[in-house]
Write a structure and sequence with these properties.
Layout (H helix, E strand, L loop, with lengths): L10 E5 L2 E5 L15 E6 L5 E10 L2 E6 L11 E8 L1 E3 L8 E2 L17 E3 L16 E2 L4 H4 L4 E2 L3 E6 L5 H11 L4 E9 L1 H13 L6 E7 L4 H22 L2 E7 L1 H14 L13 H9 L3 E2 L5 E9 L8 H9 L2 E6 L2 E2 L5 E2 L14 H23 L6 H18 L7 H15 L9 H7 L7
Parallel strand pairs: 8-14, 12-17, 12-18, 13-14, 13-15, 15-17
Antiparallel strand pairs: 1-2, 2-5, 3-4, 3-6, 4-5, 7-9, 10-11, 16-17, 18-19, 18-20
């Protein structure tokens, strides 16, 4: 272990929020007195202190990312390494609380000093402790529950663009999802969005089972890199030690990647693609792979927001995210696009933990909606429409109103019944091309328009 009382005074560079110090080797040892990711305390001449984190070690030179800023720090300031990585408070007392990017309370409550702390850097889950995803998280959002189920231990992003109501949608899922605990990670939020999430959770009465870690747009950028790790560490503890079903909500992972890019540029790292560092995939995967269903314990499910600059799905952040995650929800024009959205784990629950008609009704509804879009194109080009085309147009209108609007809230079974009702209002039973046994059992005997 290092001697935590040693102070180093040989600061050789201050560039932006990065301080580089030359560290003397300990007597009788070839190792310098710090480790990657350790915390350090920089003390200025006026007695003020700044917390920093080791982000690079090259020989006897150690680079530190200062959490706040470098004002007041000079070349003769002292640096003391604390010998520990960033930690986060973990106890039942954190539920209903809001913390900033360094894990300090920002809600005016107790600082929870006596409560235990855990390191935010932990090893990946042992594959032998993982259980195959087989349980559904109900959200009461029909475009998710019916057409792209959210499955426990799944990692899935919401692809969207600036201006879309993705934060409103994310808050609704956090409120309505049947999870034991919700852990929220806000990355680069403007104050209005931060206040919106807080007020929505409070008004819905779910704040007592929610813990929030928030980095505001005005906060130091290095804290943005710590927020996902703190949220995921706490979620992992709740799942493993208390057997809780934990849903982690993160917004916006593009802001997280931009923070990594900014720090990489300041470190003079060579960028790989559009200014992003070459380890972007690894850094994102390290966080997303925390999603897990633990054998004999609880689960961690990750739902994040990834904004696509210029609606470009080939942008490095959504592009890399798509290779890591198990599908995506595509929020476009304030609706969930049924063609751009995909859940690769839905086959583990559809028809197994849901109703027998789920798979057939899902496929039939999407098939008819695709045909309805083709009929709408024929109508726009002034082609003659058949009677069946007119039925498709009516179906398309009802489908958008009853299912695609993100404000619609219906439990799964009533949503399946509404699917049958919608089909009955537009088509005859023989036009559905579905299993006759299901039609006989579920097709409405009387149709109420």
């Amino acid at each position: 272990m290092i001697d935590n009382m040693i102070k180093h005074h040989n600061i050789i560079a201050i560039i932006g929020n990065i301080v580089t110090v030359k560290v003397s080797q300990k007597a009788g040892s070839q190792d310098i007195s710090t480790r990657f990711g350790d915390l350090a305390l920089i003390e200025a001449h006026d007695g003020s202190t700044s917390l920093a984190q080791v982000i690079k070690i090259k020989g006897d030179k150690v680079s530190l990312q200062v959490f706040s800023d470098t004002r007041g720090i000079s070349n003769d300031s002292s640096v003391r390494f604390l010998g520990k990585a960033m930690q986060v408070t973990y106890s039942p007392n954190i539920l209903g609380r809001i913390f900033n990017g360094t894990g300090e309370p920002m809600d005016g409550g107790s600082n929870l000093a006596p409560d235990p702390k855990v390191n935010i850097v932990s090893a990946s889950v042992n594959p032998m402790k993982r259980v195959l995803a087989s349980k559904m998280i109900r959200t009461n959002v029909p475009m998710i529950d019916v057409f792209n189920c959210l499955v426990e231990s799944q990692k899935i992003p919401i692809f969207s663009i600036s201006g879309e109501p993705y934060n409103k949608f994310l808050a609704r899922i956090g409120i309505q999802a049947d999870a034991d605990i919700v852990v929220f990670a806000g990355l680069g939020l403007i104050f209005d969005d931060f206040y919106y999430f807080r007020s929505q959770f409070e008004q819905a009465g779910v704040f007592a089972r929610t813990v929030m870690y928030c980095n505001l747009a005005s906060d130091p950028i290095v804290e943005r890199l710590l927020v996902p790790d703190m949220a995921l560490t706490v979620a992992e503890r709740f799942a493993v030690e208390e057997g809780k079903r934990v849903l982690v909500l993160m917004t916006d992972m593009t802001a997280y990647a931009d923070a990594m890019k900014e720090i990489g540029v300041s470190m003079e790292h060579v960028p790989s693609n559009r200014g992003y560092m070459g380890d972007l995939y690894s850094q994102l995967a390290r966080r997303y792979e925390k999603a897990c269903d633990y054998k004999g314990a609880g689960s961690v499910t990750i739902l994040s927001v990834t904004t696509m600059p210029g609606d470009d799905v080939t942008h490095p952040v959504p592009d890399n995210t798509g290779y890591i995650t198990e599908g995506q929800f595509y929020l476009h024009n304030s609706v969930l696009d049924p063609f751009g959205s995909l859940s690769r784990l839905k086959q583990h629950v559809i028809g197994k933990v849901t109703r027998e008609d789920h798979s057939q009704i899902m496929n039939t509804m999407i098939r008819f909606y695709s045909n309805a879009n083709e009929a709408a194109q024929k109508q726009a080009m002034a082609f003659e429409l058949s009677n069946f085309d007119k039925k498709l147009l009516k179906f398309g209108k009802l489908f958008r109103e009853r299912f695609m609007d993100i404000n619609v809230s219906i439990p799964l079974e009533p949503a399946l019944d509404l699917c049958w009702q919608t089909l009955a209002e537009c088509f005859e039973p023989e036009e559905l091309l579905m299993k006759q046994l299901l039609i006989d059992k579920y097709f409405p005997k009387t149709v109420v328009s």
